[in-house]
Amino acid sequence: MPDTGPSQVPSFSERVYKALLVAYPKEFRRAYGLHMAQVFKDLCREEQRRSGAFGLASLWVHTLLDLAATSFVERSKAMRWKFLMPLALVLGLLIALVDSSPNWDDTGITAAAVFGSCGILGAIHPRRAWQWALAIGLWIPALGIALHQNYESWAALAVALVGAYAGKLTRFALAARA
Questions:
Q1: Which of 54, 70, 92, 152 places its Cα 20 to 30 Å from the Cα of 36?
Q2: How much is the pLDDT for 1?
């Protein structure tokens, strides 16, 4: 019969904890998984030594609650990027299609749409501000040049960059106030 005494509980707990780390995104696990497993191993041994099975059970309750909350946050960060980039590309294309339609002659509304959407995305995901500007702002010059040989439409990219970085700066300013 295998030894299931107190000395075996942490190693079983460690194996279960390592298996539960799959709840985190792959990039997160690569960056922090080994450290998290080591910290959990140390906590298991300390709780086992100090409080026995009750301490280990308490550690598991706290660990499972933390794992559920933080893995949800990390997964939602990863999903945000996967959801927002296609949205930005479609939004940029729609703005460009309206702007390039024959009866449309309101550059101010187009510029406001590009600036506002890039600003919102820059505030949501500031690290990718330049990518939001390209995803939304490149469609207008692409269609403008292809359909109407309008080389002045490159100005839309400048509006997109300013909007995305204004959103990024707004996010940082609000975070600094909080």
A1: 54
A2: 43
CA distance 159 to 118: 9
Tens of pLDDT along 155-174?
Answer: 999 999 999 999 999 999 99
Q: How far apart are the C-alpha atoms of 74 and 7, rounded to whole Å?
A: 33
Contact 55, 47 (CB under 8 A): yes
Residues in Cβ contact with 148 at an 8 Å cutoff, skipping those fewer than 6 apart: 100
Query: What pTM does this model have?
Result: 0.59
Domain boundaries, the chain: 9-73, 80-177
Q: Which residue has the tokens 């997109």?
A: 160
DSSP 106: -
The whole-angstrom distance between residue 133's C-alpha and the CA centroid of its chain comes to 17
Nearest to 67 by CA among 105, 107, 17: 17
CA 128 to chain centre: 10
pLDDT per position as a tens digit, 9-50: 557 888 999 999 998 888 889 999 999 999 999 999 999 899
Average pLDDT (73-82) is 74
CA atoms lying within 13 Å on the CB side of residue 161: 6
Estimate to the nearest angstrom the gap between the alpha carbon of 2 and the chain centroid.
Answer: 45
Q: Are 136 and 92 in contact (CB under 8 A)?
A: yes
